[in-house]
Amino acid sequence: MTRMTCALGLFLLTMALGLIPGPIIPLMASYALADSFNAKPGAWEMTITTLTTGMPAPPDMLAKMSPEQRAKIEAMMQARAGKPSTRVYPSCITQKDLDEDRIIKKSEGEDQCTQKVITKSANRLVLEKTCPAPRSSTSKMTMEAKTPESILASIDMVQGGAEGKVHVDMKGHWLSASCAGVKNGD
């Protein structure tokens, strides 16, 4: 029997007997979550459908606007409320993005947001994202890799202090291994 086999057997025995200290168990769980999402890196085409209900702009943000600006924003939000809006755009997803669970790129102003992995497997990824004020929000994102060339996702977001919600459905399909000429979100 090799030393590695012996060490592994001893580890499993001590674990089974409950002799391993508690802090090592969470560490083991983080290694179990370390697999990459099963999608190909490269150029993707993303189709995003957004549905907004209510007024997702925080009241304190609206209060800081001039009456004209506020009326314009409120009219725009009212016109969009309850009506889905679809947009198709290119995206470049790198292997590093896949390894770090960044399939959906950060928007402007999201540098202070925190992201937490709820569940992760090669084919399914569930994340929670929390962003602080002034644009505070909480989101739950569920992504599935139907195949390495096909991604489905849904996002539900509630903005802090606002009376609105945003639901996003995303379908992505892989175009090529090269991201040459692809600018995210353009």
Estimate the strand proportion.
35-45%
Main beta-sheet strand count, sense and barrel state: 7 strands, antiparallel
User: In terms of structural class, how would the helical and strand content be classed?
Assistant: alpha+beta
The spatial strand order of the largest sheet comes to: 2-1-7-6-5-4-3
Overall mean confidence score, pLDDT: 76
Q: Percent helix among the residues? A: 25-40%
| Strands, total number | 7
Order of helices and strands: HHEHHEHEEEEE
SS element count, helices: 5
Indicate the radius of gyration in whole angstroms. 22 Å
* Overall outline: elongated
In the residues, how many domains can be counted?
A: 1
Residue windows where pLDDT falls under 50 for at least 5 positions: 1-34
What's the end-to-end separation, in Å?
59 Å
What are the defining features of this structure?
single chain; 186 residues; seven-stranded antiparallel sheet; 5 helices
What is this structure's SSE topology?
Blueprint: H1 3-16, H2 24-32, E1 42-53, H3 59-63, H4 67-80, E2 85-93, H5 95-99, E3 114-120, E4 124-131, E5 137-147, E6 150-159, E7 165-176
